[in-house]
Amino acid sequence: MNANLKLYEQQHLLDDMTEKQKRVLSAAIDVFAEKGYANSSTKEIAARAGVAEGNIFNRFTNKRGLLEAIVNPVIDQIFPFTLRDLIDNQLSKNNQTLADFIDGIIRDRLAFVIENARVVKIFIGELFYHEEMRDLLMKSLPKPYWDRVRDELRILQALGEMVPWDPQEVLRLIWSTVGGAAIGYLFFDQALTETAISHTVEALIKQLRP
């Protein structure tokens, strides 16, 4: 399985694509991640994919169409799916401590970033520049995710495991921590070693202990 396309293949989003079109999409992910969207060209992407430039226009119309083919499925299907997976496998555990909760979320999300680094890098880059994309992302988050996370936070607070902050504040701190670690890894070559991840987990636990 092509590492660049793993997320898309898992959701059967490429079932109607030819092998050439898949190569083009994978090459676009490589080039956009390495050089940025603005500094990339369809000619370079076609050369990387080993196809004629016309193959890009036949399926994706233009460079922007290629970017949308990478980013839009992340918002519409991939991101909601990964959050449902997080709910089912991480937030459905009983009798968690704060340490268990934070360690599970941090490791799960950073593992996702590492495994899908190039796609995530392109996606984050677009979020920085396009407010409408940020709005679409927030609207795509499944309501059960918010409800389940808030319930989990309130349980930890009731047990005296966590500071009695508003759940929204806690979530903001958790996701800003995950986002900071991901941005450091993707854009500034800051390795996500076991030690670095452990330190991130420990720092967040200290901030959220009562």
Task: Give a written overview of the molecule.
- This protein is mainly alpha-helical and 210 residues long.
- It has a single domain (3-208), classed as Tetracycline Repressor, domain 2 (Orthogonal Bundle), CATH 1.10.357.10.
- The protein is 75% helix and 0% strand.
- It has helices at residues 6-10, 19-35, 42-49, 54-60, 63-89, 98-115, 117-129, 131-140, 143-158, 167-187, 194-208.
- Helix 5 packs parallel to helix 8 and helix 6 runs parallel beside helix 10 (167-187).
- The longest helix is centred in the middle third of the chain and has 27 residues, at 63-89.
- The protein is elongated.
- The model has no long low-confidence stretch (mean pLDDT 89).
In short:
With 210 residues, this protein is an all-alpha fold. The protein is built from 11 helices and no strands. The protein has one domain (3-208): Orthogonal Bundle (Tetracycline Repressor, domain 2).
Distance between the termini: 45 Å
Helix content: over 70%
What fold name goes in the CATH topology slot?
Tetracycline Repressor, domain 2
Taking pLDDT < 50 over at least 5 consecutive residues as the criterion, the unreliable ranges are none
Quick one: how many beta strands? 0
Query: What is the annotated CATH architecture?
Result: Orthogonal Bundle
Overall 3D geometry? elongated
Largest sheet: none
- How many structural domains in the coordinates? 1
CATH superfamily: Tetracycline Repressor, domain 2
Estimate the strand proportion.
Answer: under 5%
**Structural class, please?**
mainly alpha
Q: Mean pLDDT, nearest integer?
A: 89
Radius of gyration: 19 Å
What is the helix/strand order?
A: HHHHHHHHHHH
CATH class: Mainly Alpha
Counted by DSSP, the helix tally is 11
